[in-house]
Amino acid sequence: MGIPAAIALALLLDALLGDPAWLPHPVRLIGALAARAEGWCRRVLGDGRLAGVSCVGLVLFLTGAAGWALLRGAAWLHPWLGTLASILLLYTCFAARDLLAHSRRVHAALAAGDLQEARRRAGMMVGRDTGHLDRAEVVRATVESVAENSADGVVGPLFWAALAGPLGALLYKAASTLDSTFGYTSERYRHFGWAAARLDDLVNLLPARLTGLLLVLAAALLPGASGGHAWRIFWRDRYRHPSPNAGHPEAAAAGALGLQLGGTSWYSGQAKAKPFLGDPHQEASLHHILLANRLAALVTALAALLLVGLRLAVAG
Fold first, then answer.
1. Contact between 33 and 55 (Cβ < 8 Å)
2. How many separate helices (H) and strands (E) can be counted in the chain?
3. What span, in angstroms and rounded, lies between the C-alpha atoms of 279 and 237?
4. What local confidence, expressed as pLDDT, does residue 1 receive?
5. DSSP reduced 3-state for 267
6. Which is deepest, 75, 96, 114, 279, by most CB within 10 Å?
7. How many Å apart are CA 111 and CA 93, to the nearest integer?
8. Which pTM value belongs to this model?
């Protein structure tokens, strides 16, 4: 079985199962490895960039070696076991179902009138403080998360899986996990986290832009969204975001939904002003979460068709 078929089956598994809590997910294992490696590298090399670069290299090497050994060992036992290992490893790298499930939980809490619970559930999706957000701000934070994570959790691993197979997807998730662990601008990680943040920027360079373009296409196909506005805001606002990548999907989603995203957010009690993305044509409301979910689901399908199709064309 080739990589395209393995990707298709892995996406099907993700759609059916999501991320069960009982499954020893590689991201959690990589996160534990990263925390351990941080301690080793700081003790030996201090707290500067060299320690951070070494930590990133060590985690990527150990993750790649473990993934390679798993795939080769399974294939050595039996070719079908090798195929199964490839499918399962790819499956753990995709997060489309969980992304939509988390946003639906926020929607359910808002629909029930429980703003406090909606804030808590939104806080599980975003890195900012959510305890003070009003109803519309919770919706906007959720929409931003769905847009950005369509790149990080779906298109990114799909892109690297199509390019480099299961190991490519696994190493992409390792880079993303390292950024989530170390890629902060706090005093602790200002220098140590530089390598993790730059690596994440690099591996997401093409997937983020592809996600923005696919969101524009999805908006043109989906009733209730606007492909024309999505393109206009994507083209105008995609570089306003402080991240070199997150602005592409977020700007496209803002235009597609007629919302204005961005603005001041709070992180650990500190305000951080961000430029606005999009125009405030509509007040953020419950239906925007569901519409953002439909856009993300359609982007998943479009990305799979495009990237798997390109892999088949190159292989053929």
1. no
2. 13, 4
3. 10
4. 66
5. strand
6. 96
7. 31
8. 0.94
The full 3-state SS of 187-255, as one line of letters, equals: CCCCCCCHHHHHHHHHHCHHHHHHHHHHHHHHHHHCCCCCHHHHHHHHHHHCCCCCCCCCHHHHHHHHH
Structure confidence by residue, pLDDT tens digits, 118-170? 999 999 888 788 888 899 999 999 999 999 999 999 999 999 999 999 999 99
Distances in whole angstroms, Cα of residue 238 to Cα of each of 38, 158, 208, 299: 33, 22, 10, 18
- Decide: 129 and 268 in contact? Cβ < 8 Å: yes
Secondary-structure breakdown of the chain: helix, strand, coil percentages, each rounded to the nearest 5: 75, 5, 25
Amino acid at 136: A
Three-class SS of residue 9? helix
Residues 245-289 have pLDDT tens digits of 999 999 999 999 999 998 877 776 677 778 999 999 899 999 999
Distance separating alpha carbons of residues 76 and 98, to the nearest angstrom = 33
3-state secondary structure of 23: coil
Which 3 state secondary structure label does DSSP give 71?
Answer: helix
